[in-house]
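Title: [Solved] Asparaginase 3D structure

Original question kept below for reference.
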Amino acid sequence: MIEIFTTGGTIDKVYFDANSEFEIGDSPVAELLAESNIRDGFSVTGLMRKDSLEMKDEDREAVRAAVSRCSAERVLITHGTDTMPDTARALLSVRDKTIVLTGAMQPARMRRSDAVFNIGFAWAAVKLLPHGVYIAMNGEVFEAGSVRKNLKAQRFERT
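Solution (posted by the thread starter after getting help):
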């Protein structure tokens, strides 16, 4: 069983109309997995609905505590991309679990989003990787503590 925790971020954003800004809505992660014909073997728990730029140390501690408490050995976390490396570092103290964080550069509800691919890629990564903390984005896996988001290039890279 894979435990999936959602925290918000771009992947969960909803755009209502031309006069609105993006807001974080219900996570579409189960729907995204269903598009890949994955309908069981996981549980989804919403931890928060925050843009990652709004996440504070106490939010990262809440994520770490939830991951530590859960009985699953394999954990997938959807997260905003801007501070994903910070949360991954905060999870390094969790032992005996494979933890993979992923997200999207465009909301999952947009036609040209990378969300479906990233969720599927992260699903494979969390099933195959050894214990540790990782970020899976756009076809690459990075170890926590050795990755950063390149804002200009809009991609993750090793540090």
